[in-house]
Design goal:
The relative contact order is 0.20. It contains one helix and six strands, in the order E-E-E-E-E-E-H. By secondary structure, the protein is mainly beta. It has a three-stranded antiparallel β-sheet, with no helix packed on it. It has a three-stranded antiparallel β-sheet with strand order 2-3-4, with no helix packed on it. The protein is elongated and about 45 Å long. Strand 3 and strand 4 form a beta hairpin.
């Protein structure tokens, strides 16, 4: 069987950055994901090299389901 060109990686979000992205670390490297919360598990693929590197998120597995209290949350990121 052929090995996947872009293997899936799993990471646990450890902190929230000032731009409201969740940040996690894997093998000493920092990764950030929009809409990820602290404690979430993110499954992703890393594609490209150098400046053309980008992440393809396959799934975000929520630690707990938190409902937004405001209907505008998806536009501004929350109060």
């Amino acid at each position: 069987m052929k090995e996947k060109l872009f293997p899936e990686k799993k990471i646990i979000v450890e902190t929230i950055l000032s731009d409201l992205k969740g940040e996690g670390f894997l093998n000493g490297k920092s990764y950030s994901f929009p809409y990820a919360q602290k404690g979430d598990e993110v499954i992703f693929e890393e594609r490209g090299r150098g400046n053309r590197r980008h992440l393809v998120v396959k799934a975000i597995i929520r630690k707990e389901n938190i409902q937004a209290t405001c209907s505008h949350y998806t536009q501004c990121g929350g109060c």
